[in-house]
Design goal:
alpha/beta
Length: 251
């Protein structure tokens, strides 16, 4: 059995932010059961954009930071975002340096292990979406976006939970052959995937996303890649492009 706990209220120096609300979930004890326990919602930070108020009925954006970053820091991706929306900045569950991570490399068959981690945490993302929409008025299906490892997770959501989102925005990421089974894509129900990637990315080379998008298009998935002159970072032009595309999807 799971429950959400309010950890703290935070504010960030983001032009369009009104408030941060840090939420977390914990799982209580339960009697033995033949069925696996329900996924536990992730901790998240609420960022309200475009002059919105917490009680408003708002579109929901699920945002997943990169490895070693943290939820509050990822708010920079939404600086200047003028559309009223509720942005749920999810907190990755694994401590990584001064921040957090969505998965780690712990075995020689790393990508197989990554697939297992991504599958499990994607279920927790859905549990978080359910908790947020139960507590807050929400307009339509949410958007999912993520950077780097968060982008891997965004792709996984398109694979495992396609009917739960109206659009997916992976940034500086890609799918890997060993990690996810391409044939599992529910093509008719997969939402549009708009990927963004830097041509000078030394961490995840752009060819990874190029190959991902070509493969998805070959399957019939609505997918496109926006390339930017950028390293492994959300530079200004990428942020502007990302926000423009999210605005188009919302409106």
């Amino acid at each position: 059995m799971s429950r959400s706990v309010v950890e703290s209220n935070r504010r960030a120096a983001v032009t369009t932010a009104i408030a941060f609300v840090l939420l977390s979930a914990s799982c209580g004890s339960a009697p033995p059961s033949a069925t696996p326990p329900a996924p536990v919602p992730l901790a998240w930070v609420e960022l309200l954009t475009g002059g919105a108020h917490s009680g408003d009925e708002l579109p929901l954006i699920i945002a997943m930071h990169g490895r070693g970053d943290h939820a509050e820091g990822f708010a920079r991706a939404f600086e200047g975002f003028e559309v009223p929306a509720r942005v749920a900045l999810l907190r990755a569950p694994i401590a990584e340096g001064d921040g957090d991570a969505w998965f780690t490399f712990r075995r020689p068959d790393t990508w197989v292990h990554v697939a297992e981690d991504l599958d499990a945490v994607s279920d927790r993302v859905i549990a978080t979406v359910d908790a947020i929409t139960a507590a807050h008025p929400t307009r339509g299906l949410p958007i999912a976006m993520g950077f780097s490892q968060g982008g891997n997770l965004a792709y996984t959501l398109a694979l495992r939970h396609p009917t739960r989102f109206r659009a997916i925005f992976p940034v500086s990421s890609g799918l890997v052959e060993e990690a996810l089974a391409w044939e599992r894509f529910d093509v008719p129900n997969t939402p549009p995937i708009i990927a963004l990637h830097g041509t000078a990315d030394p961490i995840i080379p752009i060819h990874v996303d190029r190959e991902t998008i070509v493969r998805l298009q070959g399957l019939g998935v609505r997918a496109e890649l926006h390339e930017h002159d950028a390293p492994h970072w959300i530079v200004d032009s990428m942020r502007t492009d990302l926000q423009r595309e999210m605005t188009r999807v919302i409106r």
